[in-house]
Prior knowledge:
Blueprint: H1 3-17, H2 23-36, H3 44-47, H4 58-77, H5 79-82, H6 86-102, H7 105-108, H8 120-128, H9 136-143
Amino acid sequence: MNALARLAALDHAAAWLATADDAAVRQVGQAIRAWLDGGAAEPLERMLAVTGRGGVSARRALALADRDAMLRQAHRRVSRFSVLESSAAARLMAVEFERYQTGRWPRERREKEPPAVEPATTWWRILRANLLFPKAKRLAQILAEVEIQYPV
Length: 152
């Protein structure tokens, strides 16, 4: 696909996004269309707020948000974690993650599917996505569902 075809496809996608029910999706579509029309006062990345100084890429921010959601879910689903306050659960989860990473992960890393039992499922997915496990203090914030905006 040449550059002109890619731009045409982007325009088509932006037109579709601009008619979405979700306001945030509409705004993205409108920003892309404005950029394509040459009426944008700033670069597309800035209009979409997906770049910044010293931050992580948009893809990385999404991956970290997914990791955080997996950790919250493991916290809720694994009874030995769910009965603890977020800081105590974070410490226990960090210990168990380290144990999994050094013990089972080397044997399971090439498997196509994660282990069937939590928290090994979550640990496998985090490691498979090449994501770092958060430090205990940060993990306690994640588990307490404190909203964190990853700088992008």
